[in-house]
Amino acid sequence: MRVLLALLLLLASAPVPAQTALPPAPYADRQIDDPALEKKARALMETIRCLTCQSQSIADSNASMAADMRSEIRQRVMAGEQPEHIRAWLIERYGDWVSYEPTANPIVWPLWGAPIVLLVLGLLLLRGRIRKGKRS
Amino acid sequence: MRKMLIWLPLVLFLGFFGLFASGLLKPDDRLITSKMVGKPLPAFALPAASSDRPALTSADLATGTPRLLNIFASWCVPCAAEAPQLMALRQAGVEIDAIAIRDARADVDRFLARYGNPYARIGLDARSAVQIALGSSGVPETFVIDGKGRIAYQHIGDIRADDVPIILDRLKSAQ
What we know:
Number of strands of chain B: 7
Largest sheet of chain A: none
Oligomer: heterodimer
Structural class of chain B: alpha/beta
Strand content of chain A: under 5%
Order of helices and strands of chain A: HHHHH
Number of strands of chain A: 0
Order of helices and strands of chain B: HHEEEHEHEHEEH
Strand content of chain B: 15-25%
Shape of chain A: elongated
Number of helices of chain A: 5
C-alpha cells in the first residue's frame, strides 16, 4: 500500500524545470510549415552534434542549447539559406567536431584511403598465392 | 624476411592494443574551444538584460583597450561561483561586459543583487544566437576582446582564483 502511495505521489510530482524558465525558442520543437523545407532542416539537424550532450545530435537532444540551435537552423532554412552553408558556418565556429558528416579534410585522407590500400594489399596477396599454387 | 613476417599480426595487435588502452586511460576532454579565437567578434546588437545596465552591441567591445566579455546566466550555478573572481578583476580595473544567455530581466536583476555586478553593459541573448555565433558552447565562458574587437582568448568554465592572473596576463598581451 505504502509503495503504491509512493508511486502515486511520484505521478503527481511536478516536473523539475529545465535550466531556464524561458519558453523554448519558436522553432525549437515546431516543424516548418513547408514539409520540403522541414525535411532539409531535419536532415541537417540530424548531423549536427549537440554541444551539451556530446554523443547526441541536436535533433535528438533535449538540452536547451540544442533547442536553440534547432530553432536557429529552421529559421535560417526558412530564410532560404542552404543547409551546407549553415553547416560550414557552424564548423567555422566549433570546428569539424560539430558535424557528424565526414569532411575531405587532409587529416581524414588516411581513413578514406585505407579501404583502397587494404584492397590492393589483398589482391597482391591473392596473386602471390595463385602463382605459388600454379608452381606446385 | 619471411620468418619475420609471422610476427606482423602480433606487432599489429600490440600496436592497436596500446592505442586503445591509451585512449581509454586518457582523461576525458569534453571542452569545445571556439574556433573564433583570433578572429573579429561577430556583429550583434542585444537588448539590455538588466534594469540598471545599458544594452550591448559588438561595437561597444572595440573601444581601443582590451576588455572581458563574460557569458553567463542567472540560472547557472558555476556563474555564481565565479562572481567573486569577476569582482576582483573589476577591482583590478578590468572593464567587463556580459551576455546573459536564455535569461529574463527580473532573474538577472536578482542574480546581480545577490552576487554583485561587475559589468559595464549586459546584453540579453534569449535564444543563444550570439552565443552560437561566438562559438561558445556553454555558460560560463569568458572572452578577452582586444581593442580592435578581435577575440584574443577564451576561458571555458568558471573563473577560479588561480585563473585571475592568467586572464590579467592575457588582457595585457592583447593590448
